[in-house]
Amino acid sequence: MPRRLRYALAAPALLLLGACAEDAPLDSLKPAGPYARMIDNLVDPVFIIAGIVFFGVQIGTLAIAWHFRRRAGDDELPTQTHGNFKLEIGWTILPALILAGVAVATVLTILDLEDHPDGALEVTVIGNQWWWEYRYDLDGDGEAEIVTANDLVIPAGEPVSLSIESRDVVHSFWIPRLNGKRDAVPGRSHPLLLQADEPGVFRGQCTEFCGLSHAYMRMRVVALDPAEYAEWEAAQQEGASVPRGSLAREGMELFRTTCSGCHLVRGEGGNEDVFNGAALVSGAAPDLTHFASRGSFAGALFDLWRDLDGNGEIDADEIGGEMNYADLKAWLKDAPSQKPMSPNDGRGMPNLNLTDAQVDALVAYLETLE
Amino acid sequence: MAIVERPTEALTLPPVVTTERKPLGVFSRPKATTGWRSWVTTVDHKRIGIMYGAAAMFFFIVGGIEALAIRVQLARPEQELFSADLYNQLFTMHGVTMIFLVIMPLGAAFMNYLVPLQIGARDVAMPRLNALSFWAFLFGGIFLNTSWFLGGGADGGWFGYAPNSGVVFSPGHGMDFYAIGLQITGVGTLVGGINLVTTVLNMRAPGMTLMKMPVFTWMSFVTQVIIVFAMPVISVALFLLTFDRLFDANFFNVAAGADPLLWQHLFWIFGHPEVYILILPAFGIVSEIIPVFARKPIFGYPFMVFSGIAIGFMGWGVWAHHMFASGLGPISVAAFSVSTMFIAVPTGVKILNWMATMWGGKLTFTTPMLFSAGLVAMFTIGGLSGVTHAVSPADTQQTDTYYIVAHFHYVIFGGALMAFLGGFYFWWPKVFGYFLDDRLGKVNFWLSIVGLNLTFGPMHILGLQGMSRRVHSYRADYGYDFWNLWITIGSFIIALSVLLLLFNIWRSYRRRHLQPAPGPDPWDGRSLEWSVPSPVPVHNFDDTPVITEFDDWWHRKYAEDESGRLRKVHEPEEIAQVGDGSRAHLPSPSYWPLVLALGLPFVGYGLIFNLAIAAIGGLLLVAGLVGWALEPADDPDLPPHGHDDDHPAADGGDAAAAAEVPAATPDEEEVPAS
Amino acid sequence: MTDAALHAPAASTEATHGHPTATGLSNEKLAMWVFLGSDCLLFGGLISTYLLMRHRSVEGPGPTDVFDIPFTSVSSFVLLMSSLTMALAVAAIARGDVHRNRVWLGTTAFLGAVFIGGQVYEFTGFYREGLGYTTNAFSSAFYTLTGFHGFHVSVGIVMLTTLLVMSLRGNLGPDRAETVEIVGLYWHFVDIVWIIIFTIVYLIP
Predict the structure, then answer these.
(1) If you placed Cys at B418, which of A132, B373, B375, B431 could pair as Cys (CB 3.0 to 4.6 Å)?
(2) Chains with ≥3 Cβ pairs under 8 A against C?
(3) H/E element holding A200?
(4) CATH class of B39-515
(5) B32 shares contact with chain C (CB less than 8 Å)
(6) Whole-model pTM?
(7) Which residues in chain A have their CB less than 8 angstroms from residue B349's CB?
(8) How many structural domains comprise chain C?
(9) Complex prediction ipTM
């Protein structure tokens, strides 16, 4: 079609996009992987068709309103047309045909999106009020070798097969730049594929209303290049060692006595022997064995590290840099004041009435959990 | 339901309440025709329609305030003016209020007032049941809103997904108010549906075949049929939720093996037909207004009727498009994706037919016409975003984001509400006997259009950029700040336009004597309501009209002259009915629908707080039912009706009276019992 | 146009008050049909719920553990017979036999009560075998479905008894045959729903 016309039709779309902020980490119109791209490629023509109809109806209505307005003093009745059968049949059939075309493309895309490639990394994603857990059963023996939270670490350039589940209410797992969302329904397991073209960080949001902190139930996908990913996988399978510093050891003791009702840290430097996990309705709180290897905490509500390069994101190379002590200490001091939760009902982290010194000790311990 | 109807002759209503006979020895039959008592005991469809409209506008303000609170919170990122808990109540109650307590009753207001008039009837089939519908709606709405004062509003979203709506995750009473409150209003809606379906099928004037009914009546009829079949499904869902919450049942107890998707399926099997309940009356209104102000008939009457019927049918086959991300599996998703696309076809036909009605017409842009043209333009936007949702992979990006919020506000606000506002301006002179100021009306319209588009237009962008629904706050660096602020500004423009409407109503009422009376037919209308005086007399028609064609009233005013051109041959005042009610007999007012409806919230409070209260409610229900059953539709004590007075009212009349059945003629439309 | 075309179809109405309706059915009868149509969806929702939940119990008795098909067959037969007596009641009043009408109305109500009694007996038995309302997924769905049906039967018994009392007081003559017929419609519907429930819940595993 003529260039000018193409631009004219694209103008509203461009206008809208132009009015968008530069920085929209959850922008579904900026696919960063093949699945999101398939969706985008499917829906862009539909947006264009919709745009054409939009302009047609708006301009048409305005034009008709202007052209056929009753002139002053004109009291004659207009021609009393009752209808035009052929025309009406036509504008019943034509939209149906257009939609049929869209339908065919849609069904094909649905099938393509379901195509699970063999050998993909499999991760179970479990929604809890108000954080996400990730379990990697690497050898397929039914036991998860790696249990993490908040940051879902995946290899870039490869498909990852997720099984989305829930331990309490319905949540929804959504990383807009990588794929559409899938609900996490308790008692069910739903498949979803993710793939990031390049290493990077991709943000997500729980998108099924799940109570008090629905807005604050977030997640990040951290895609690493395959070599880094392999390193990460190996490191995650080791348990925590006993910390060397005295403050950190103090923190470890405190952790064992105060936090074992909910949180688990594996290894000698952890609390496997005293952990019971019984305090929560969902029965689980984030596994903290490698807490300091993550970029975010508290359901990805807070960044764990400082954004040193100022690009608005905690990249993989900033993990282990400067810790965000302010938010972390505030969280440990009084979690419910930082994030709406219902700890008295067994949902969320309570205020543990720690002194500042105790908080410092815990932070020192958590820093060792790399 | 009274067992027998004894026809009476002329109904003269003395202004004073008499105390002649006391049915059941307790209450005398209400006789007041003025004052609040006459409203509280009315069974007149017109008064019931007015009450629906007034109550709906009250709840509109409540829901509007809830909306403004939401927008104030979201105007800036990371604000916590309202706690997350309160915010969750605000958006839940906003949604429930707007859908169930505003849009549905506004539709009911128009359907109740107009359908009997448009089909040439005296009233609906069962006038007391009609009153029950209204009171059940009102008491249910009040009951639901008392939750604010009794522990907190409902907080599980208007869609109340399980298990979040259960006692473990919503331990307060809010969701009990939600479940029980909607059951109470649901009783009213269902019963109204049965009533209106019967009315349209049975009580059309002689000669009015189905394909001669006005489009508004047709759309109302389809709406009521949908209601009859959709309400029981939500009722089941709400029962299951209530039983889980109050009696520890296991319907949504995942640990006991339940599947939370059961709630979603039940809710949306109701929920999707529900949106057609919201919009079809509005489509009907616009189909009445545009022909009048274009001065030509609706383009393609059969297509308009059949597209409405098609929407009514197809609406049952698309519900799972609300569940594209819920894990249904690709086959179900594909099937519902395709069916959802095709339901756009009949809706598109309507848009084009309205445009074609305007084409070649001589358009006068009064306020009603502006609102109607507004619907054509604005609903289209909502319809188009709807088509993009039908593409299910795209919907997995769009669902539960502000893109969806944009969609449904365009179709509900830009669609249904636009039509209702236009309908107010159009039928106000008919209902009340004076006009709403048209200049203020035009400002009302333009403020609405600007407010609507500024508020909901940018939400498309926010949604595609990933802003989730139902979030009490959003991060400052996600790129949502700019549009959220403008959206909030837009919402206040909407508020301004609503205030203007209320001001217009108040001012026009105050100045009503300063304008000339509208007469029966100020707009040169096409349907039967314009053939009777304004305001409509209590008995509607002096003589039941005999219909020969569609737009019958119009064709009595206009006929073809020798050269085949349509000319006005009668002024409305010459041929309109004059309001002589001497040949009419009417159903009598009654307390019992009010009593019965009153029992319902008592049962509700009792289930939540204390069973003794429920027992009181039960007694009211039984008393209401018994009193109703034993009460004849027409008061036997009213003079004079030519029957013997020796039958006590308590037994509902006797066989002798029933045997005195006058021959049915087109002139004497008998109003049946119930 | 002829005069005839100007008037509504001269329907033979069965209305007790004789005004013509476009469908030929009285408003009350048509309304009952519409109501029964909505009730189909009510039971449809409950039956679907039951079908989904009946085999999803994690613990507690299941259908095969508690059902006594022979017993329920007998009570189903009783309800079925009550539809027969209902039809006889309608036929009686239509031909003016007020006395027979009373007999059959009473019998129908009695048979309905026997059915309810049978259900009460059956459910208390289940309860003793460990199937309470809150026991498991199956129990909640089962008792809710049959409970709603039992409630409908009970309402029917109330209506039948009311008609019987009216008849005894001389207020239910042949001119009011339609009232009996409308209650009959309701009663037959409730019976048909039971046949469906009995088949789906008890007979088909």
Answers:
(1) B375
(2) B
(3) strand A200-205
(4) mainly alpha
(5) no
(6) 0.92
(7) 88, 91-92
(8) 1
(9) 0.94
